[in-house]
Specification:
Strand order of the largest sheet: 1-2-3
CATH class: Alpha Beta
Order of helices and strands: EHHEEHH
Number of strands: 3
Distance between the termini: 59 Å
Shape: elongated
Structural class: alpha+beta
Radius of gyration: 22 Å
Number of domains: 1
Largest sheet: 3 strands, mixed
Length: 84
């Protein structure tokens, strides 16, 4: 998934380009140099707003494959009980 950033002026000048790049991911539209809006294809919008029924379905989202997640391995140790 590619995220494209366009200024609001660029959007006004070439709306066709902005619409075409939504095929590859969201388009962030800046206003005064700061992110202000997001333009999505209808498919991505529907996918994001669809109700998820369980975590397995949520984890099946293709965009999650791009996220690197390396949790630290848990170290579990035992110690004697203190009954004092």
């Amino acid at each position: 998934m590619t995220i494209t950033m366009l200024s609001s002026q660029e959007l006004d000048q070439d709306l066709a380009h902005a619409k075409s790049v939504t095929k590859h991911g969201p388009v962030i539209i800046t206003d005064g140099g700061k992110p202000a809006y997001v333009l999505l294809s209808i498919e991505n919008y529907q996918r994001l707003t669809r109700q998820r029924h369980n975590i397995a379905e949520s984890l099946g989202t293709p965009q999650l494959a791009d996220i690197e997640f390396e949790p630290q391995r848990a170290v579990i140790t035992t110690r004697p009980a203190d009954f004092s």
